[in-house]
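Example 3.2
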Amino acid sequence: MVEKTIRIAVAAGLSVALLGAGGAGPAAVGALYVAAVTAALVQQDVRDLRLPDALVLPGAVFVVVGAVWSALGPGGWPVVVAAIGCGVAALVGFAVLASGGGLGMGDVKLAAVLAGALAAVVAERGPPLGEVVAVVGCWAVGSLVAGAVVATLGYPRRVRTGVLRAELPFGPVLLGTFWGFVLLG
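Structure, written as tokens:
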């Protein structure tokens, strides 16, 4: 019961903060979905080192719906281009990183959803497309640097399948940097 209350409080708080940060419009639909699942994703990733598709993948639909809704209004089609382009770029870039090990496919999918949501929110505010791509690029690099710092500081070791090794749930890092960029940027 307490766990559910915490999830609801986190979702409500992030949603209110998002709506109050810089005049969020229809493009924020994807970020509002992320607000609704942030606490559950963090909890799941810390506990099981997994980001379930059932929580991550619907975010892509919400990002596209919000971007198209914005495009039909004041945002224009650059919002859609930014959201889809940055989402796909993050998907490809993080998939390449995951092929070397250290990142899971849940992290890759979450990065794509977050990049699309961030791009949509920023693009709707009106800067040129190049600035939107720069913000999303800074978020991606910032997330990777933050993850490296956390890993270097020594995340607690976990026993998994009988092997003792350091494992880092990267979802909380992705989500933390995402909310920093959305709310402060």
